[in-house]
Specification:
By secondary structure, this protein is of the alpha+beta class. The chain has ten helices and eight strands. It has a domain at 2-74: Integrase, N-terminal zinc-binding domain (Arc Repressor Mutant, subunit A). A hairpin with a 5-residue loop joins strand 1 (85-92) and strand 2 (98-105).
Length: 252
């Protein structure tokens, strides 16, 4: 699970460029729209996924009217409502690293064309459905600020709330959960005063692969370029991202 933990840290540190390009609000809006479609009439109290999506949007200072407009699109009330689909693409990067890409799109042909071209330019390739996904598990995650946190106490609180695992890091601690216990675990941690910085769902590799530094950085470059595509919401791989690699990528 360390790969997801390190990669999410890298994304946050390099995220300023995304904000300048205006991509953050677009991605957050799509996530809210998809979540609102799951029911609850646009009420986040009745829809845990929508509640998480709205919390992320607010944390990124997304304007209230943008959030409301995204909810309206999801519930079919928006004047500019479009059909947005969730799609997971599968592929292999350089050196055989397995990669999953979660996308939200209103044009599947555009999205798959962009994803395929990005793989091709990096000497990777897309794969057939199911040929990569079996190497991953879908997990909920809650990320916390590590400063001042007693790891033993956190582990007990997280376990009591139903968490599966706790992975410490230098700046961030990640708590992993089953998909259906994410909301409960996040609420329990917040109530205990932990500083929750992010939460959501991610693909976690069952087994990670290790590469030499230059080869690993080549793969991480592909992950970053996939993340930069407008329709892509998240990228996961089975690459073992060490502290050394994370620091090298942050300054790249």
């Amino acid at each position: 699970m360390s790969g997801h933990n390190k990669w999410s840290t890298i994304k946050r540190k390099k995220g300023a460029a995304d904000a300048k390009r205006g991509k953050v609000f677009t991605r957050l809006g799509r996530d809210i729209t998809i979540a609102a479609r799951e029911g609850g009439g646009g009420n986040p109290d009745a829809n845990p996924r929508l509640r998480l999506a709205i919390a992320k949007a607010r944390a990124s200072s997304m304007p209230k009217e943008n959030i409301e407009r995204a909810i309206a699109r999801g519930t079919g009330q928006g004047e500019d409502a479009v059909q947005i689909e969730e799609i997971t693409y599968e592929g292999y990067g350089p050196h055989g690293v397995a990669i999953l890409i979660d996308a939200l799109t209103d044009n599947k042909n555009r999205t798959i064309s962009q994803v395929r071209a990005t793989f091709t330019r990096a000497n990777g390739s897309m794969a057939s459905e199911g040929s990569v996904a079996w190497q991953f598990e879908r997990k909920g995650y809650v990320e916390l600020t590590a400063e001042g946190v007693d790891a033993d106490e956190l582990f007990l609180v997280a376990a009591d709330a139903g968490a599966d695992d706790v992975i410490p890091g230098e700046e961030t601690i990640t708590v992993y959960t089953a998909r259906d216990t994410l909301a409960a675990v996040e609420s329990a941690l917040a109530e205990k005063g932990y500083n929750v910085t992010d939460s959501g769902f991610s693909w976690i590799a069952k087994n990670e692969v290790e590469l030499e530094k230059d080869d690993a950085l080549q793969v991480m470059g592909l992950l970053e370029r996939l993340e930069e595509l407008d329709d892509v919401q998240g990228v996961a791989s089975n690459l073992n991202i060490t502290e050394e690699l994370a620091k090298a990528m942050e300054t790249a």
